């Protein structure tokens, strides 16, 4: 799609509200391979594990994340050029098929070129994610509280070609059996996280438990057109979309067997949600918010933080459209006297359809009060993510 169509798709997502997160929800975690279940602090805990709100220093009285933002994209190489080339080939084929005076040589050449260009579009498309998140944390020894907003939007542009066309006679070739689809789904959470230490009877051990009730808004958009009538230069997006508001909840637990070590478990979106969008062509896009369970462990001695998370469940955003996602994540952070941080990580895909990610990040936090974090993630040759955040800790 041209840049103007891409901008239109993203502006629609922003209006409908938010997007798919990359691996990790905030810039600090994104630089550490997306880890956070056992390594998030009291400010970002609601995004990973609300029990982690019990992780704060004695002099922490207030925390603010304002905001954390990210953008990511994964696209077929030269997608715009491939679509333009097919459109030209399709016009030439139609002209040769409909010529008043048949020309077998011209039709054969047009058909051969048409098949090459159509095959070049197989498994083509792009996906984009956008997100903006906020948090206000009030740590205390009794019951820390965090008011948060998490907003994600995911957009998929998909080309589904009919491979049977490649075996048909030249005068029967038709692009109308191949399709172009643009789907976008968003989920926006506004909630309150609370956490408390609980003494486990008989074993005399303390664990931290966290709970995040939240209002959740889902939005899904679905545009569908056959490849024969799709015009890359003048494609117009419909303004129709489906939306619903519901309730959901997250839960988490953290345990510290020894002071530097944390093991944790997080379960998010415990109430599964679905929202369908049916377009004029009869194509249905089902956007899903599924329960997700992740286990994590972290070691933190003050200057070195090493963390590992593993998804125990697979997540699929669009039913029958996108492939699932499930990762094992590793990350480290080196802290220079609480003034500067260097981060790195690696996310290993556990399912087909998603690639491994390499992550890097840096942070600057003068006096340990105002913090600026940036991160980048790369997967393969055509997938790239960036994240940035501003935080205040008093």
From TrEMBL:
Q: Per UniProt, which keywords does this protein have? A: Coiled coil, Signal
Q: Does the keyword Secreted apply?
A: no
Q: Which InterPro entries match?
A: Put_conjugal_transfer (IPR032811)
Q: Which residues form a coiled coil?
A: 79-124
* Cleavable signal peptide: 1-21
Task: Give the protein's recorded name.
Answer: Conjugal transfer protein TraF
Species source reads: Veronia nyctiphanis
